[in-house]
Design goal:
This protein has 93 residues and is α+β, with helices and mostly antiparallel strands. It has two domains: 2-35; 39-88, no CATH class. The protein contains one helix and four strands; from the N terminus they run H-E-E-E-E. A four-stranded antiparallel sheet has the order 1-2-3-4, with no helix packed on it. A hairpin with a 5-residue loop joins strand 3 (75-77) and strand 4 (83-84). 5% of the residues are buried.
Length: 93
């Protein structure tokens, strides 16, 4: 009888620890989503395509403004159609 009680107490303790750890992991993910510092572009921001992607065009012809940041991290631009990723642009100074 005492062994069964000890086994049940151990199971309850393990379940409690599992639930606490699961809640902490969810908070970290929420903090990452809510942190705007980790976003590389914002709507209205000006970005410039790398010269290798648009050879023969001046910097002003390779520049566009961000219309929308997608959940995938890619952006939609006002002047140029399609989705574009961070690697397609010159680094931000």
């Amino acid at each position: 009888m005492l062994g069964g009680l000890a086994l049940a107490a151990g199971a309850v303790g393990a379940a409690g620890t599992f639930m606490r750890k699961k809640n902490q992991m969810g908070k970290k993910e929420r903090r990452a989503k809510d942190n705007p510092a980790s976003v590389w572009a914002r709507p209205g921001m000006t970005v410039t395509f790398r010269a290798e992607l648009m050879p023969g065009r001046d910097r002003e012809h390779r520049t566009a403004s961000v219309k929308k940041l997608l959940p995938s991290g890619r952006v939609l631009l006002h002047e140029i159609e399609g989705e574009h990723g961070q690697g397609e642009f010159d680094p931000i100074n």
